[in-house]
Design goal:
The protein is of the alpha/beta class. The chain has two domains: 158 residues, Glutamyl-tRNA reductase, N-terminal domain (Beta Polymerase, domain 2); 135 residues, NAD(P)-binding Rossmann-like Domain (Rossmann fold, 3-Layer(aba) Sandwich), CATH 3.40.50.720. It is built from twelve helices and ten strands. Helix 5 crosses helix 7. The model has no long low-confidence stretch (mean pLDDT 87).
């Protein structure tokens, strides 16, 4: 039995490539089933975050396993293999175990030591268990990795000075606007990243937070915790003009904000600056917003 990891991350591929390879959690069952079925892996785990996509597999034949995983990524996302290969990395055997440990401990993250990654690795393993693509080797490996990662964090205190991407996004907004007090913010998405952003924003004196989410109750729950206003997802476009800062972090697979609606919002705002932060992969905001005067758009890169 051989362990193989094939993937790409923020260092090997730009967001334009990473977003095309993402695997949304609600539909992770199909790709896992394909890996252990059509693509002949013995066991498989898929880790898909805003900054990396990795397939870890246990295979009888190392070289064939590498080829099959690459073919799976190409076939599943309809991307030519030659386009992908320049961005993909490989880790095999002991090197693969070492890589998994580095990732889980936050040593390979864009923000060194960031705390979210261990939870994301645990979730990826959990999906594998649920979909019956985890076997004896994967089970033993991940339980050991979780123990060691926890020990690394405890003994090195690596997470104490780490900041999340959400925190970095808020710091970027602060650099653009200077003082954030008196500014209004719209969060599109009410997941963990949005919650972290809300905490950081409030600590910087934001005047108002609006939260829009496909599940309205989640938006309501967030504003109960932090204050602010829940917005019906179907009408958030009508409220964009009220926001100085917009942070998007949804699981949408296409753009949910484009230049035409933002041009209208800017006109209604008398062309006061707007700052957009897209921390989603795939991206939620059309990059053409950068062509609009007084509009500033940043993504996870």
């Amino acid at each position: 039995m051989n362990l193989v990891i094939i993937g790409l991350n923020h260092k090997s591929a730009p967001v334009e490539i990473r977003e095309k390879l993402s695997f949304p959690a609600p539909s992770i069952g199909e790709p896992l089933s394909l890996l252990v079925g059509k693509y002949e892996m013995n066991e498989a785990v898929i880790l898909s975050t805003c900054n990396r996509v990795e397939v870890l597999a246990i295979t009888d034949d190392m070289e064939r396993g590498v080829w099959q995983i690459k073919r799976f990524l190409s076939d599943f996302h309809s991307i030519p293999l030659e386009t992908l290969e320049e961005h993909l990395y490989e880790h095999k055997g002991v090197d693969g175990v070492r890589h998994l440990l580095r990732v889980s401990a936050g040593l390979d993250s864009m923000v060194m030591g960031e705390p979210q990654i261990l939870g994301q690795v645990k979730a990826a393993y959990g999906y594998s268990v649920e979909e019956n693509s985890a076997g004896v080797i994967v089970n033993k490996l991940y339980h050991k990795v979780f123990q060691v990662s926890k020990r690394i964090r405890t003994e090195t205190r690596i997470g104490e000075s780490a900041v999340s991407i959400s925190f970095a996004a808020v710091e970027l907004a602060r650099k653009i606007f200077g003082d954030l007090s008196g500014k209004s913010v719209m969060l599109i998405g009410a997941g963990e990243m949005a919650e972290l952003a809300a905490r950081h924003l409030l600590s910087n004196g934001i005047r108002e937070i609006m939260v829009a989410n496909r599940t309205y109750k989640k938006a309501e729950d967030m504003v109960k915790c932090f204050g602010g206003r829940a917005i019906d997802f179907a009408t958030y476009h009508d409220h964009i003009k009220e926001a100085d800062i917009v942070i998007a972090s949804t699981g949408a697979t296409n753009y949910i904000l484009g230049p035409d609606e933002i041009k209208k919002a800017m006109k209604a705002r008398k062309y006061q600056p707007m700052f957009f932060i897209d921390i989603s992969v795939p991206r939620n905001i059309d990059p053409r917003l950068n062509d609009i005067d007084n509009v500033y758009l940043y993504d996870v890169d």
